[in-house]
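Today's session is about reading a structure prediction critically. Students often jump straight to the picture, but the first step is always the sequence itself: look for stretches that repeat, for charged clusters, for runs of hydrophobic residues. Only then move on to the predicted structure, which in these notes is written as discrete structure tokens rather than atom positions. Here is the chain we will use throughout the hour.
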Amino acid sequence: MKSLKSGKLRERYSKPANNHREFKLADQIQKELARLFHLEVKDPRISFVTITDVELNFDLSLAKVFYSTFPSDSEKVALTQKGLEAVTGFLRSKISKSIRLHHAPEIKFIFDDSLERGRFLSNLIDKACHKPIKNEE
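Below is the predicted structure for this chain, in token form.
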């Protein structure tokens, strides 16, 4: 089963009504997008993009695609966002054909900075662990 990042997602996907289909479709979209980025998207602005998660709304009309990029400085992220917005229509049509959907969801790309935040917190923990402890006697 897919690892869920937030309690909000866990709560949403744990509800029984129609969520199994949403979960499976989100997983299929994530896999298909990864394949398309690897094999078919040739835009130079889109390099080193990793799809971290896909969320679908309740009526399957909108897919929020969370991505990360390397390096993740603000200039690179803005350039990648413009590239992703330029190929959205192409990706949507390819997804609808490969997954065989009558109405492909609208795709919205959102930069996922959770990897950067995780790295930052890990560095803080490492610094705290390596500081010498002063004896207060």
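Discussion point for the tutorial: The radius of gyration is 19 Å.
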